[in-house]
Specification:
Isopropylmalate Dehydrogenase; eleven-stranded mixed sheet; 11 strands; globular; binds 1,4-dihydronicotinamide adenine dinucleotide; binds the ligand NCC(=O)COP(=O)(O)O; oxidoreductase; PdxA_fam; pyridoxine biosynthesis; cytoplasm
């Protein structure tokens, strides 16, 4: 992962200020945050503020020190840690069991981070994973952290994108989801030309702002098998998607917009570019992929890059990144969670803040 914020030319710039809300206390959030903080010397490239519960982080650190985990861990005293109210009694937390109490805590951590970012105290929020069910149990009805971030930042247009750099080839995988946390049966109604235009605009803006790509090549997936096979297997493509794409090519003459690409084969070239199994794929793979629904994008992304993909919310006035994984309740408290996606989320946040200046 490259971190331009560390380059010599940037040494005089103020360091990016990251806020890290810990996520659900019963999940692996606190563990992966500690592992990520120990993974490198962050003080050279960022200032980091943890938003959570001190006693929970202390307990997690002690458990990790006593476990078979052999990687480096930070000293608790070395961390800038804000103890968020209301206090979370540790006896109410059972690893692996989301509850109203843990949902209320993770909600408060994130809200404090958002308030700080909106007030200009932080340049980026790197979120630990939350459980949507726990938020609901606590009375907070949001599909996910993305929507709370957008509401807090007063962003009417926002999108969910995933980025990852291949450890095999250094190639960047970037995918934006046109629809996110809605039932599959609602996807065709939710997908409209207006919605897709909004998401494409956000993607093109982010590619320029966050990755310096001014003439990107973007692939847009079809919705139906074989992109509808001329209307035989579904009509969205012939009814409006093909003409919408043509209109976008007129709107963005500097952007190569390909599609609708049959969703099953759209991911072949990214896979080759990611794993380095076909040399030409590095030149022919697109700079970004627009998937029409959650699993159309996230199954391939997680298949390629589950240990290092980064979820980012585009359209906010500050940077937001997150590891691609969830609370992993099945392994919480066992010390075996992989912290690499959290490391990548922090590095990508530093990089994006640096690029946005
Ligand atoms: N950004 C966020 O806050 C996210 C939250 N979630 C939430 O997390 C909860 C659980 O979701 P799941 O679908 O079970 O996905 P998950 O990512 O929590 O777990 C899926 C599988 O991957 C494993 N896994 C996940 N992260 C791992 C890590 N760092 N190291 C090793 N193994 C890991 C788990 O043990 C599990 O077997 C749900 O409430 C979901 O909504 C899911 C994705 C992102
Ligand atoms: N599948 C991605 C995911 O659940 C992330 O949601 P969010 O909490 O970042 O909105």
């Amino acid at each position: 992962m490259t971190t331009p914020a560390t380059s010599v030319s940037n040494l005089s710039l103020p360091l990016p200020r990251l806020a890290i809300p810990l996520g659900d206390p019963a999940g692996i959030g606190p563990e992966v945050v500690l592992k990520a903080l120990g993974a490198r010397d962050w003080s050279a490239i960022a200032t980091v503020t943890i938003l959570g519960t001190r006693s929970l982080l202390h307990q997690t650190l002690v458990a990790l020190q006593q476990s078979s985990y052999a990687g480096p861990l930070p000293a608790l005293d070395s961390l800038d840690l804000a103890d968020i109210s209301p206090p979370l009694p540790l006896e109410t937390v059972t690893f692996g069991q989301a509850s109203a109490a843990t949902g209320a805590a993770s909600f408060a951590y994130l809200q404090t981070a958002i308030e700080g970012a909106v007030a200009g105290q932080y340049d980026a929020i790197v979120t630990g994973p939350i459980a949507k069910s726990a938020w609901k149990a606590a009375g907070h009805h949001y599909p996910g952290q993305t929507e709370l971030l957008a509401e807090g930042a007063k962003a009417e247009r926002f999108g969910m994108a995933f980025v990852a750099q291949s450890p095999h080839t250094d190639w960047w995988l970037r995918a934006l989801l046109a629809t996110t946390h809605i039932p599959l049966r609602q996807v065709p109604e939710a997908l409209t030309p207006a919605l897709l235009t909004q998401k494409l605009d956000l993607l093109i803006h982010s590619l320029k702002q966050d990755f310096g790509l001014t003439q990107p090549r973007i692939a847009v997936a079809g919705l139906n098998p074989h992109s509808g096979e001329s209307g035989q297997l579904g009509r969205e493509e012939v009814d409006w998607l093909i003409s919408w794409l043509e209109a976008q090519r007129q709107r963005y003459p500097q952007v190569q917009i390909d599609g609708p690409i049959p969703p099953d084969t759209m991911w072949v070239r990214p896979g080759q570019a990611w794993f380095g199994t076909e040399g030409r794929a590095l030149e022919t793979a697109h700079d970004a992929y627009l998937a029409l629904y959650h699993d159309q994008g996230l199954i391939p992304v997680k298949l390629m890059a589950f240990d290092r993909a980064v979820n980012t919310t585009v359209g906010l006035p500050f940077v937001r990144t997150s590891p691609d994984h969830g609370t992993a309740f099945d392994i919480a408290g066992r010390g075996i969670a992989d912290g690499n996606s959290m490391v990548a989320a922090m590095e990508v946040a530093v990089e994006m803040v640096g690029r946005r200046g």
